[in-house]
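Notebook p. 47: complex prediction with guanine.
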Amino acid sequence: MTARIIDGKKIAEEVRAEIKTKTEQLVADKGVVPGLVTILVGENPASVSYVTAKQKASKELGFHSVQDSQPAGISESELLQLVEKYNKDPGIHGILVQLPLPKHIDETKVLCAIDPDKDVDGFHPVNVGKLMIGDAKFLPCTPAGIQQLLIRSGIETEGAEVVVVGRSNIVGKPIANILLQKAKGANATVTICHTRTRDMAAHTRRADILIVAAGFPNAITADMVKDGAVVIDVGVNRVGEKPSAKTPGKMIAVLKGDVDFDAVKEKASAITPVPGGVGPMTITMLMYSTLKSAQIAAGLQ
Ligand code: GUN
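Predicted complex, structure tokens below:
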């Protein structure tokens, strides 16, 4: 079997078009423009490129977008004060602090300082808890994007064996939680594997839907995948550089996922590519959550 390629870029464009229409309605009906601030500490190249892409998407949708870049040496208390400033700003509906933060700053403390009603990343313990009890307000963006990819690709999750590889707070734990909820686009039987799982392949081979956020290339090889499985590759590994096709003289990163794509696509029924799979959906779902926050602030939800 050769897998259908799940085109995350195309699905993300569809969702962004829906968000744009709803944003225009919100501005016309209520005079409320969704506002998003992205806070970047330091100059980690991956973080800079993610935040730049988030800002670009938010401007294209007509949002009020603020990019707040701070030096790597900012103190924890200064960063907490900055978060507090945006908590109080009525023009800002979403606050995103790009992770990871420098070692001298307690990430949990910063995430807990964000007003849960503006926590469009869904990382505040209040929002993590709400997701867990089936009353989610803001879902973490990458897992929310994965769920939309599955729904919009017509992939049935109800009763499916889902195996998640990776137990991070950003991807593994929340996607497992989302897909096990008693809800549309969920209702799956979920297993989470991690670095201490005894026989990883025994689990992954049972999966109807295999979601991989392991953090290194070729974590999943063809022998670990059941015939006809759906494979979602969340990995983004920078494996080298190549000349940009768009800008002569510029070098760009060569990206590879966590799945041995060429071999696994011959076994799976559907698979996400890297780049162009999960990535575009992550940013799109951040825009979705920012719009939702603005709609709530305008009394619409
Ligand atoms: N770093 C990697 N992924 C994410 C994300 O989804 N949100 C934030 N804030 N930082 C990240």
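Notes: The longest strand covers residues 35-41. The chain has ten helices and eleven strands.
Next step: compare against the earlier run before touching the bench.
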